[in-house]
Specification:
By secondary structure, the chain is α+β, with helices and mostly antiparallel strands. The protein is built from seven helices and eleven strands. The chain is about 25% helix and about 30% strand. A hairpin with a 3-residue loop joins strand 4 and strand 5. The protein is globular, with a radius of gyration of 19 Å.
Length: about 300
């Protein structure tokens, strides 16, 4: 079911942040684009930076229900609780402010992965605190890598969710298309992994996730924009793959108890073009999972997870 456009009214902060990124990108190109010279060896910039702290509105109960439904979960598992995978919805604008201090065209930044620890449950409809800072920057001649640290929760428990978000930026016009479109890894689930869920992803899956989270980067829902960036068609958000994976674990491993998931470490390995049919595979002997076309095909996502006692 397509996500209702009315949910865009809850994405004002994210939409404003993306608008600022677009304006800054135009100014960046007018002022000469990338740095005049790129380092041939990895270059680490001083860090971490200062914390930025904001008070924001938490997602509404209606948005939570729609997000859980889009991700393949059951709203009854949550009642008045917020899914941990929804945290980018209210933290995206703050993270964008953190990256905004960098002298780069951030409109081309892509998500590489995230490490999350959940120490408390966040209730829907309550005011939230977001703290973020730039933890590290590493550059070489081809790309820049950024790590953003994030804490969010209520006033009483501001660190209910702690995350490290890994992003990267292709540097140089000649490397932009090839660096984005080339598969990043040949990691596979392996024959010993079992299939936990299958997903038939519609061409509109990127648009629906964008409406629910505010990440309306056009490479996820506009064909011409995706092709201009080097992809054959719109690609699904990495966080959408993550959310679907967590809800499949809630159904098939945690038996409808989302509170059992206390942490996860996710890496996005290659773009998942839409439409597509993929599966979630879990390791029979450990707490790992993958999203792939088949058990022996290269994975789009690779992850590990932790379970509360």
């Amino acid at each position: 079911m397509a996500a209702s456009l009315r949910h865009l009214f809850e994405q004002k902060r994210s939409l404003a942040a993306l608008s600022r990124l677009a304006i800054d990108a135009v100014a960046h190109r007018i002022n000469g684009g990338q740095r005049a010279s790129q380092p041939s060896e990895p270059e680490r910039e001083p860090g971490p930076g200062p914390w930025i702290e904001e008070r924001v509105e938490g997602p509404s109960a209606a948005l939570v229900r729609a997000f859980v439904r889009e991700s393949g979960g059951d709203a009854g598992w949550y009642r008045d609780r917020v899914p941990v995978a929804l945290f980018p919805q209210w933290t995206f604008a703050t993270m964008t402010r953190v990256l905004g201090s960098l002298p780069d065209d951030l409109s081309r930044v892509l998500n590489q992965g995230v490490t999350v620890s959940r120490t408390a449950t966040i209730r829907s409809g309550v005011a939230l605190v977001v703290r973020a800072r730039l933890a590290s920057v590493e550059r070489d001649e081809r790309r820049a890598r950024f790590v953003t640290e994030l804490e969010t929760g209520t006033e009483e428990q501001p660190d209910a969710i702690v995350a490290k978000v890994h992003t990267y930026l292709p540097l140089g016009r000649s490397s932009q298309r090839s660096d984005r479109a080339r598969p990043k890894s040949q990691e596979t689930p392996g024959a010993s992994a079992r299939e936990l869920a299958t997903w038939s992803l519609a061409p509109t899956a990127g648009r629906d996730f964008a409406v629910l989270t505010g990440d309306v980067n056009p490479i996820h829902w506009l064909g011409p924009a995706a092709k201009l960036a080097g992809f054959r068609s719109p690609i699904l958000h990495g966080f959408a793959q993550m959310a679907r994976s967590i809800e499949a674990l809630n159904r098939g491993v945690f038996v409808g108890d989302p509170a059992r998931l206390s942490g996860f470490d996710v890496r996005f390995l290659r773009p998942l073009a839409l439409p597509s049919r993929v599966a979630l595979y879990v390791d029979r002997g450990g707490a790992r999972f993958w999203v792939a076309d088949g058990p022996n095909g290269p994975a789009y996502l690779s992850a590990s997870y932790e379970v509360s006692p």
